[in-house]
Amino acid sequence: MKLNIPKAIPTYANEPKHEIVKQNWEEIAKFHRDVWEKVARKLFVLIAIILELPENYLADAHAYDADSDDHLRYMIYNVRTQDEWDRAQAYSKGGHTDFGSLTLLFSQHVAGLQIRTPEGKWQYVKPVEGGITCNAADTLT
To answer: What pTM was estimated for this model as a whole?
Structure first.
């Protein structure tokens, strides 16, 4: 199951929402803002410092209250048998890269993120229990 949810700002107030999102909007909106303030913004500041850019360069470029393609994507992966994986490949587009700046993955019991090694092989990233996996996406790469 996949749900794309835009930021909780006035610009997107009238965007259509799945019924489950409507029912839980206050909690989702707070979580989205908290992830920005407590995780993403801090990562952007740290990355800017490492790159010797002005400290708020990336954070300002990704300001929460500004129009952007920033969104939450809720993806629930269920454990599959090998037969189910094999059958699903007919509908798969194969590996891809993430087009944005950062991808944050919150732990699940199933590995969903793959990285491409320098040799070009796709490899699963083991989720960290209770952690967040941070992937530098195409824009930052």
So the answer is: 0.77
